Amino acid sequence: MPGAGPIIVNGLKFVLIASWSCLVAAEMLLGSMSGLGYLISHAYELVRMDIIVAGII
Predict the structure, then answer these.
(1) Which of 19, 36, 37, 53 has the most crowded Cβ, counting Cβ within 10 A?
(2) DSSP 8-state symbol, 57
(3) What are the percentages of helix, strand and coil residues in the chain, rounded to 5?
(4) Number of structural domains, the chain?
(5) What is the DSSP letter of 33?
(6) How many CA atoms lie within 13 A of 34 on its CB side?
(7) Host domain of residue 13
(8) Non-local CB neighbours of 25 within 8 Å, separated by 6+ positions
(9) Tens of each residue's pLDDT in the chain, 57 residues
(10) Is residue 44 exposed (0-12), middle (13-18) or buried (19+ Cβ within 10 Å)?
(11) What is the pLDDT of residue 31?
(12) How far is it, in rounded angstroms, from Cα 55 to Cα 1?
């Protein structure tokens, strides 16, 4: 079991990144009027790179 720890942590890291990316993409595609996807889309329209980068990070 101790040898499986790093593999489990890497899997959780991957799943967290993938799910967060899907969440932001869904907000952007569905036209939500709130949320992180909306913030990034709106900042893109206003050419606010600082907000876009902060939203991605």
Answers:
(1) 37
(2) -
(3) 80, 0, 20
(4) 1
(5) S
(6) 0
(7) 2-56
(8) 37
(9) 788 999 999 999 999 999 988 988 888 788 778 888 888 889 999 999 999 899 888
(10) middle
(11) 75
(12) 37
